[in-house]
């Protein structure tokens, strides 16, 4: 499942050039319950707009955190934003996510947060 801005809304023109994608660890309270009950991981796309404010760009519920799932997710999200890949993306240290970013957004600079 994926939620993000639609092309019809014309929102893709204002998508920030830097994205942040996060799938929180299972020890966080709200996510832990969701994973135990439904076995899904919540992920979000957040960008920073020109005034420096965080902006929710989209979110997802994922059953698997493998390369194919992340590849599908990034391809869907890129379609939603008119195919405009970010200049930078900041993620956790997930090898599957890293490989999917390399495949879907080869010119994007990938940063890890610790």
Annotate the secondary structure layout.
Blueprint: E1 2-3, E2 18-22, H1 29-38, E3 41-48, E4 54-62, H2 67-80, E5 88-91, H3 95-104, E6 109-112
Parallel strand pairs: 2-5, 5-6
Antiparallel strand pairs: 1-4, 2-3, 3-4
Attribute tags:
114 residues; alpha/beta; Nucleotidyltransferase, domain 5; 3 helices; 28% strand; MULE_transposase_dom; MULE transposase domain-containing protein
In CATH, the architecture is: 2-Layer Sandwich
Shape: globular
Strand order of the largest sheet: 1-4-3-2-5-6
At the fold tier of CATH, the topology name is: Nucleotidyltransferase, domain 5
Mean pLDDT: 77
What series of H and E elements makes up the topology?
EEHEEHEHE
> Kindly, what is the distance between the CA atoms of the first and last residues, rounded to a whole number of angstroms?
27 Å
Domain count, please report it: 1
- Rg, rounded, reads 14 Å
Number of strands: 6
CATH class: Alpha Beta
Class by alpha and beta content: alpha/beta
Describe this structure in words.
A hairpin with a 5-residue loop joins strand 3 (41-48) and strand 4. This protein is α/β, with parallel strands linked by helices. The protein has a six-stranded mixed β-sheet, sandwiched between helices. It has one domain (2-112): Nucleotidyltransferase, domain 5 (2-Layer Sandwich). It is built from three helices and six strands; from the N terminus they run ββαββαβαβ. The two termini are 27 Å apart. The longest helix is centred in the middle third of the chain and has 14 residues, at 67-80.
């Amino acid at each position: 499942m994926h939620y993000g801005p639609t092309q019809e809304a014309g929102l893709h023109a204002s998508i920030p050039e830097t994205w942040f994608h996060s799938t929180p660890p299972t020890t966080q309270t709200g996510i832990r319950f969701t994973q135990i009950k439904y076995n899904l991981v919540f992920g979000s796309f957040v960008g920073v707009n020109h005034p420096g404010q965080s902006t929710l760009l989209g979110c997802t519920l994922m059953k698997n955190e493998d390369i194919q799932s992340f590849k599908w997710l990034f391809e869907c999200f890129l379609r939603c934003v008119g195919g405009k890949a970010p200049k930078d993306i900041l993620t956790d240290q997930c090898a599957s996510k890293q490989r999917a970013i390399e495949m879907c957004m080869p010119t994007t600079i990938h940063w890890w947060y610790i």
